[in-house]
Specification:
The complex is a heterodimer of chains A (about 220) and B (about 280).
Chain A: E1 2-3, E2 17-21, E3 29-35, E4 38-48, E5 61-67, H1 75-91, E6 101-110, H2 115-130, E7 138-145, E8 151-153, H3 157-162, E9 165-172, E10 178-184, H4 189-220
Chain B: H1 2-8, H2 10-19, E1 35-39, E2 47-53, E3 56-67, E4 78-84, H3 100-116, E5 125-127, E6 131-143, H4 148-162, E7 164-170, E8 177-186, E9 194-201, E10 205-208, H5 212-217, E11 220-226, E12 232-237, H6 245-277
Helix pairs in contact in B: 1-2, 3-4
Classes of the chains: A alpha+beta (about 220), B alpha+beta (about 280).
Chain lengths: ~220, ~280
């Protein structure tokens, strides 16, 4: 089990995070990613057979299934699935595998805040474990703006509930540009820029963690 | 010959227009389609609006019903939006349960209502803990030609300004609700959120208000919802090409300009409705 480094600097500190790779035997790639108490298990199948109705002649079809901890998938899960799918699709080199399907299945083990960003990180590590060719790495980060204007990175469920706005970023590694951006609650333009700058800086920690964990995985064997 | 080229190489065909900084329908990159608005067309609904954004046609009908307020906030009501994308509007949608795009659109509209606080849920309460209004907002697309989220937000906002709910009081003797259909009051609209959608073509060029064909060619989509205080209610970028901070800022400024245009149109419409009735 690899644990990430905790950075301590004012308001921009992430909860202790880590991942475990290749824990399931059937999928092509699998990973479990935790951020604080939030844990998501991801499994990737692909490139594999695709239904004729869903096949795209020149690219792979990416599908994401998100299963909540309790109950059946609803409209909220569908919306999250679409966001994760679009993010993965823009990073995976789908043109290498035409007329195939790449399926990412996510299971929420525990939700203690920052769920969507944990799902993004888990799916990335699982895709790396499956050996899928990608343009760049990406990570998910959540930050909240409190009622007093304070910005907190990687919030817990309690901090999310008490905040004025929740911003979720999906950032890619080559130029730290934004792949995914979704906000909840109202914020001003300056606050958005500040949150973006903080998340771009913090994303470097997660990218370094991906590199270290991959290095450790292959140095053992 | 042009139609043959357009069918065989749609992206190349589109790029020839982009080179001259315009689009096949004659618009500039930052120009929106003509927006027309019609309210109160559905007499059986408590409030309704029909919006046409170029060819994209969306109708929103709002019905108010009674419900028991939620236990954790007994002085509030509910607003339940639902976006319906049926095979009627486009061949890409199949009959049956709501598809992915319809569900994502419904979730988006619910978030816009929640984030912008367009109406205070406390205004929907009739009797604390016992009875409150639930507003079912059904948004149906009649013609799909791209930019469905903008059209749905405008339709919802216009329909909410049009809603007239009858006065309700709980009689002390029977404990039942008594509805007075002769006295009707409009809703108190606090904020006016307006959505502006952008499509990213070839990872570099950003166009406003994409049509259906442009959406198919796009490598990324971005939707920004602003309100009158120039605050961002919702920013939604779902994957696609990475976007730099400066481009994002340009989009936000364009969204704020668009907000003023739509707000002006809504105010003119409200004035014309008042002069008709009063």
């Amino acid at each position: 089990m690899e644990t990430g480094l905790e950075i301590t600097s004012d308001y921009s500190c992430l909860r202790p995070f880590g991942c475990e790779q290749n824990l399931l035997s059937r999928p092509d790639g699998s990973a479990s990613f935790f951020q604080g108490d939030t844990t998501v298990l991801a499994a990737v199948y692909g490139p594999a057979d695709v239904k004729v109705s869903k096949e795209i002649f020149d690219k792979a079809t990416v599908e994401v299934i998100l299963k909540p901890k309790v109950g059946l998938s609803g409209v909220a899960e569908k919306a999250k699935e679409q966001m994760i799918k679009n993010t993965c699709e823009s990073v995976i080199l789908t043109a290498l595998h035409p007329r195939t399907s790449i399926t990412v299945v996510l299971q929420v083990i525990h939700d203690a805040g920052s769920l969507l960003s944990c799902c993004l990180n888990a799916s990335f590590v699982a895709m790396m474990d499956a050996g899928l060719a990608m343009k760049s790495s990406f990570c998910g980060l959540t930050c909240v703006i409190g009622t007093d204007g304070n910005i907190v990175l990687d919030p817990t469920a309690k901090q999310e509930k008490e905040s004025r706005a929740v911003l979720i970023f999906g950032i890619e590694s080559t130029a730290k540009k934004v792949l995914l951006l979704t906000t909840k609650g109202s914020c001003s333009v300056e606050e958005l820029q500040r949150c973006l700058a903080i998340c771009q800086k913090a994303s470097e920690k997660i990218f370094q963690f991906y590199r270290d964990s991959l290095r450790r995985k292959f140095s053992k064997s | 010959m042009a139609t043959g080229f357009k069918t065989a190489e749609p992206l190349e065909y589109y790029r020839t227009f982009l080179k001259d900084n315009c689009r096949p329908d004659g618009r500039e990159l930052g120009e929106c389609r003509t927006t027309t608005l019609n309210i109160g067309s559905i007499t059986t609904a408590d409030g309704s609006a029909l919006v046409k954004l170029g060819n994209t046609t969306v109708v929103c009908g709002i019905k108010g019903e009674f419900a028991v307020p939620p236990l954790d906030s007994p002085n509030t009501g509910y607003i339940v939006p639902n976006v319906d994308l049926s095979p009627l509007c486009s061949a890409r949608f199949r009959p049956g349960p709501p598809g992915e795009q319809a569900q994502a659109a419904s979730q988006f509209i619910a978030e816009v209502i929640e984030n912008s606080q367009v109406i205070q849920k406390e205004d929907l309460s009739i009797e604390n803990g016992k009875l409150s209004w639930v507003l079912y907002c059904d948004i149906m697309c009649l013609d799909y030609d791209g930019n469905i989220l903008d059209a749905c937000t405008i339709a919802l906002l216009a329909a909410l300004t049009n809603v007239l709910l009858p006065e309700v009081c709980i009689s002390e003797e029977t404990g039942l609700a008594e509805v007075n259909l002769r006295v009707k009051k409009p809703l108190n609209i606090v904020k006016h959120p307006v959505a502006t959608s952008f499509a990213i073509i070839d990872d570099t060029i950003i166009i406003v208000d994409p049509t259906g064909e442009e959406e198919n060619l796009a490598t990324g989509m971005l939707t920004i919802v602003t309100d009158e205080d120039n605050r961002l209610c919702t920013v939604h970028k779902s994957g696609g090409s990475p976007l730099s901070g400066e481009k994002q800022q340009d989009c936000i400024s364009r969204a704020m300009t668009r907000h003023k245009e739509v707000r002006k149109m809504l105010d003119e419409m409200n004035k014309s409705v008042k002069t008709k009735n009063g």
